[in-house]
Amino acid sequence: MTGLALVAVPNQSATAAPSPGTSAQTGTHSATTTSVSEKKAAKQKAKKKKKSRGIRAWRRVKTRAGDPYSYGAAGPHSFDCSGLTRWVYKKLGHKLPHSSSAQVSHTFKVKKPRKGDLVFFYDGGGVYHVGIYAGKHDGRRWIWHAPRSGETVKKDPIWTSKHFIRRVKYKH
């Protein structure tokens, strides 16, 4: 039977001594350690979940390949550029406005883009196009997008340096 034994220490009252094979430290330290490691695990899980949302967006947009472009359309069988990104993120439980320039305010700046991030294209008049980042291949960055009238949803290399990549904000 394992348990605590009372041991008399000279000039002090009796204290509890640990049973054989257990630590002499109090439970406070191990609880703190557990709490810290639990927090780390929760952070990693949250980070993984956010990453998987981007991957899910990337996978979802690929299912629309070949659907026709139609100005003002937001799916499920035809899209304009912001309608496509709006439809994809709606399927993931996030509302985006139906305008590429308005979608910028629903994103945040990132240092390293990941699949599923939004790619915004701009010129002197502001943001004019949006697509979903598809990663790097052959030294080029690629996007899934609904390009223009007469074309279909497809994957293309980014064609200009006048673009920026941002991640969709998620509410906690």
Task: Please provide a written account of the structure.
This protein is of the alpha+beta class. It has three helices and eight strands, in the order ββαααββββββ. The strands form two sheets. The protein has a six-stranded antiparallel beta sheet. The protein has a two-stranded antiparallel sheet with strand order 1-2. A hairpin with a 2-residue loop joins β5 (126-137) and β6. The model has no long low-confidence stretch (mean pLDDT 83).
Please write out the topology.
Blueprint: E1 5-7, E2 15-17, H1 27-62, H2 81-91, H3 100-103, E3 107-109, E4 118-123, E5 126-137, E6 140-145, E7 154-157, E8 163-168
Antiparallel strand pairs: 1-2, 3-8, 4-5, 4-8, 5-6, 6-7
Distance between the termini: 48 Å
- Percent of sequence in beta strands: 25-35%
- State the shape: globular
Q: Major beta sheet, specifics?
A: 6 strands, antiparallel
- Summarize the helix and strand pattern as letters: EEHHHEEEEEE
Q: How many strand elements?
A: 8
How are the strands ordered across the major sheet? 3-8-4-5-6-7
Unreliable stretches covering 5 or more consecutive residues: none
Tally the helices.
3
Helix content: 25-40%
List its salient traits.
25% strand; 172 residues; 3 helices; 30% helix; two-stranded antiparallel sheet; globular; alpha+beta
Describe the structure concisely for a colleague:
The chain is α+β, with helices and mostly antiparallel strands and 172 residues long. The protein has helices at residues 27-62, 81-91, 100-103; strands at residues 5-7, 15-17, 107-109, 118-123, 126-137, 140-145, 154-157, 163-168.
